[in-house]
Amino acid sequence: MSPRAASLRSTRTLSMLNFSLADVRDGLGPFLGIYLVGLGWAPDEIGFVMTVAGLASLLATTPAGMLADATRFKRLLVVVCALLVAVVNLVLLLWPQTWLIAFSQIATGVAAAAIGPAILSLTLGLVGQSGLAHQLGQNQAYNHAGNATAAVLAALAGYVYGVEAVFYLMALMAIVTVLLVLMIRPEEIDYDEARGLDKTSHQSESIVNVFRRHPMLLVVGATLLLFHLGNAAMLPLLGQRVAANEVMNPAVYTAGTVVIAQMTMIPMALLAAWYSHKNGYWLLFLIALVVLPIRGVIAATVPGLWTVIPVQMLDGIGAGLLGVATPGIVAQILRGTGRVNMGLGAVMTIQGIGAALSASYAGVIANWLSYEAAFLALAGVAALAVVVWLLLFDRSVSSSAFHGVAR
């Protein structure tokens, strides 16, 4: 069937699915650091357990992308991941032993690795390449709105009942996710489109060929590795600094940081979808990369709680643009290969190296020097991502690949 035959019900449900997944895909996120501070953990210990989650995600992302390409049970894949995250984190709450905390983060990392390619696969299967930029913008806008809503609810629950309430909120959103997945009509998913095959390609390329013939995929991965090495620990570190200094309720503060960022991401995601439809993704990447070093310097050098506003608005700009640009540019580069979701998984694997190391990198510096030194160290790494993008990525790849879809 044509991907354009997908009903409005299925595409709207896909958008709402991204809303509910916002509180599931990343697990406890920054609230984990606050919870562990309350249990008496040091910054470097928290960094190491977050690194465990990152490494688990790192190992699972490429196989998860291959699974998303191969399986016709794409809806079931999302359901299993959502329920897994909810269950293991409830177990963590009830029995907060070190080995269970580590196990819960491994499971969360694996689930997060699978959800990204699964959602891209469903999106391509429903709307095809021609509708991808628009639907990616919708997906990300709803996802960021879901993050902001979940953060507000978490703040209210955390203020009244303590940070433990966040665990139960995540379980509730997992149930909503399952119900929404079941509302997407499986007969409307084009399974060839879902893995990047088109009318000119009849079978998937070999994995070796994908990397040999499409080197810009590796440049995207290397750039995002440096970006996430500088980015992943920044928000958790902000929350930990407040919790350690006992300046205000850390659950409320962390929720505020999330809300500011997510509300900025919504218009940025829609803007990215509009811009990329005519111009490709190169400039979107560059802007997202440039704002991160600025964010780190502000976090390190501007004192006071109000620093969170510019810091998290910059986070919203970067993440809002990359949320659309990353799957979009991978789908463009690998169009016709039948390996789009594997390619996204590979990029997530490479960037996962940076994300996995970020918490430990920043945690050690914060523990031995200061939180301010850690923010500057994160900003320095992020600046390298800008250099790599400017020197190595062939911007004509994004533009030419896009216009090939537009025709």
Question: What is shown here, in short?
Answer:
It holds the Pfam family MFS_1. This protein is mainly α and 407 residues long. Helices cover 80% and strands 0% of the residues.
Protein architecture, described:
With 407 residues, the chain is an all-alpha fold. It has one domain: MFS general substrate transporter like domains (Growth Hormone, Chain: A), CATH 1.20.1250.20. 80% of the residues lie in helices and 0% in strands. The chain has 16 helices and no strands. The chain is globular, with a radius of gyration of 20 Å. It starts with 7 loop residues before the first helix and ends with a helix. Residues 400-407 have low confidence and may be disordered.
Features:
disordered C terminus, 16 helices, 407 residues, 80% helix, Growth Hormone, Chain: A
Domain tally: 1
Distance between the termini: 20 Å
Number of helical elements: 16
CATH fold-level topology: Growth Hormone, Chain: A
Uncertain stretches of 5 or more adjacent residues: 400-407
The gyration radius over C-alpha positions equals 20 Å
Mean pLDDT: 81
Helix fraction?
A: over 70%
What's the helix-strand series?
Answer: HHHHHHHHHHHHHHHH
How would a textbook summarize the main sheet?
none
- Report the top-level CATH class: Mainly Alpha
Q: What is the overall silhouette? A: globular
The CATH fourth-level homologous superfamily: MFS general substrate transporter like domains
Class of secondary structure makeup? mainly alpha
**CATH architecture classification:** Up-down Bundle
User: What is the number of E strands?
Assistant: 0
Strand percentage, roughly? under 5%
Organism: Vreelandella aquamarina
Protein name: MFS transporter
InterPro entries: MFS, MFS_dom, MFS_trans_sf
Transmembrane segments: 48-68, 75-95, 101-129, 141-160, 166-184, 216-239, 251-274, 281-305, 317-334, 346-368, 374-393
